[in-house]
Write a structure and sequence with these properties.
Blueprint lengths: L14 H10 L5 E10 L5 E12 L3 E3 L5 H7 L2 H21 L5 E5 L2 H5 L3 H12 L6 E6 H5 L2 H12 L4 E7 L3 H7 L6 E4 L1 H6 L4 H16 L3 E4 L5 H9 L4 E2 L10 H15 L4
């Protein structure tokens, strides 16, 4: 019997890309796009999340699912993450100089956070850009902070002293998880996009969101829904009093110049403050 051809992992970069990845930062091939976050209750523009892309000279623009794991495995994520943090803070300062006052969120990888350089990297990015620390949101996965509790707590306390805010990404509502996160002084929880997608067909999911919102209010937590794709999802989240949301219903991620145009159009057509 003939053997089946081996199937490649869709999330693993082709072999040639791995070698090229090592030079991508030096060649200035990485760039950031920004996805808007909208206040679901008032329709005001609430902020942006910075997301990395790779502009490959032959393959075009590549999304991070093709290369981020390799960056993490090789340790390059520390240097690339530092570049992303500096770039996002610098761009945030440019927007604020134009009169826009909104939060800029930056994802932090596990290896980047665990490196001994991360606290200094944040301090350096804020100092160089003169970006308002209160408007910088550092996003961590639940796993990153919960599984490294002993080492992460002191580091988070150092960062909190700068005045920055913390978000937990890909959060799935649950009483025990929120209790576990309480001592980490989290400011924002981002509901997982797959959870949002399942809300319309699950009354229990909606009930969990309702409980999270009520408990979040007592802890001064901001709740963000990720991956909102249709008006029905938005309406349901509004009913449950979720603060803000992001997703293709509002906007795909854009480079900074496109965000400038988005901000202008948003102010004109929404009539809401920026």
């Amino acid at each position: 019997m003939a053997k089946r051809p081996a199937t490649s992992d869709p999330k693993k970069p082709p072999h040639g890309l791995i070698a090229e990845l090592a030079q991508a930062l030096e060649r200035d091939e990485f760039f950031l796009v920004y996805q808007p976050t909208i206040d679901l209750q008032t329709n005001a523009f609430a902020g942006v999340e910075a997301l990395i892309r790779w502009r490959h000279p032959q393959r075009g623009v590549l999304k991070p699912d093709l290369f981020i794991d390799e960056l993490e495995a090789s340790g390059q994520i520390v240097e690339v993450g530092r570049w992303a943090l500096n770039t996002a803070c610098s761009q945030g300062a440019i927007w604020h100089d134009k009169g826009y006052r909104f939060a800029v969120s930056v994802n932090v990888s596990p290896k980047q956070f665990e490196s001994g350089e991360f606290v200094d990297d944040v301090a350096g990015a804020l100092a160089a850009s003169e970006f308002d620390p209160a408007l910088l949101v550092l996003e961590f996965s639940q796993t990153t902070i919960l599984e490294t509790k002993e080492s992460s707590l002191p580091r988070l306390h150092e960062l909190k002293a700068f005045g920055v805010r913390f978000a937990v990404d890909d959060f799935e509502p649950g009483r025990s998880v929120l209790d576990d996160l309480q001592e980490f002084t989290i400011d924002v929880v981002k509901l997982d996009r797959q959870f949002i997608a399942g809300m319309s067909s699950s009354s229990s999911a909606a009930a969990l969101v309702r409980e999270l919102v009520q408990r979040g209010k007592t802890r001064h937590l901001q709740i963000i829904a990720s991956g909102i794709e249709n008006a029905e999802q938005r309406k349901q989240l509004q009913i449950e009093e979720v603060n803000t949301g992001q997703g293709y219903l509002f906007s795909v991620p854009h480079e900074a110049e496109e965000i400038d145009r988005f901000l202008e159009d948003f102010a004109i057509f929404s009539g809401k403050p920026l």
